[in-house]
């Protein structure tokens, strides 16, 4: 029987495909859902993750092992650039994030949010935001297939709500025409 405060040597995460992934007990330090599940289940070391695909579990385990199961504070905010190498310190994190499409990042971030892994959610959010940072609205529309025009009221609301996206290095938000 596990004593209170004792960390299990191994935890088994079960993906939505039913695959089993064994990870060190310290994994609970970075994943709040797993920590809370282990506290609730006492003698169990198997955690079913019915909505998380195996590939995402593998990525999460690799990230946690690389960071030695400690929360990372590598993110420099606010974003000074749209280049990950200007924002992040870890070259392996940069390489990994640059290998993912925007859709993959979004899916992965949603699963990390479900698992309550704050450092990975923040890392992915920064990476997604960098896709938009320092681009004018026409570039964003073209790159992401946004159709249609905005009226003046909609344009002003977007500029107000998302001004951090529209600020470029030396550029001015007033220079952007969304119509």
Automatic annotation (TrEMBL):
All copies of domain SKP1 component POZ, residue ranges: 9-68
The keyword Membrane appears for this protein: no
Pathway: Protein modification; protein ubiquitination
Keyword presence, Nucleotide-binding: no
Record's keyword terms, sorted: Ubl conjugation pathway
Pfam families linked to this entry: Skp1, Skp1_POZ
Name of the protein: SKP1-like protein
């Amino acid at each position: 029987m596990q004593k209170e405060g004792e960390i299990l040597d191994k935890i088994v995460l079960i993906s939505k495909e039913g695959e089993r992934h064994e990870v060190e007990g310290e994994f609970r330090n970075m994943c709040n859902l797993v920590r809370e599940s282990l506290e609730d289940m006492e003698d169990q070391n198997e955690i079913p993750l019915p909505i998380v695909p195996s590939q995402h579990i593998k990525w999460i385990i690799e990230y946690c092992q690389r960071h030695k199961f400690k929360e990372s504070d590598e993110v420099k905010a606010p974003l000074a650039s749209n280049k990950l190498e200007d924002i992040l310190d870890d070259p392996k994190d940069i390489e990994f994030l640059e290998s993912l499409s925007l859709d993959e990042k979004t899916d992965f971030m949603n699963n990390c949010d479900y698992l309550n892994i704050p450092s990975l959610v923040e890392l992915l959010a920064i990476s997604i935001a960098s896709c938009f940072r320092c681009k004018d609205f026409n570039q964003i529309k073209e790159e992401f297939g946004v159709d249609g025009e905005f009226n003046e009221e909609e344009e002003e609301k977007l500029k107000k709500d998302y001004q951090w996206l529209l600020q470029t290095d030396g550029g001015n938000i007033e220079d952007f025409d969304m119509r």
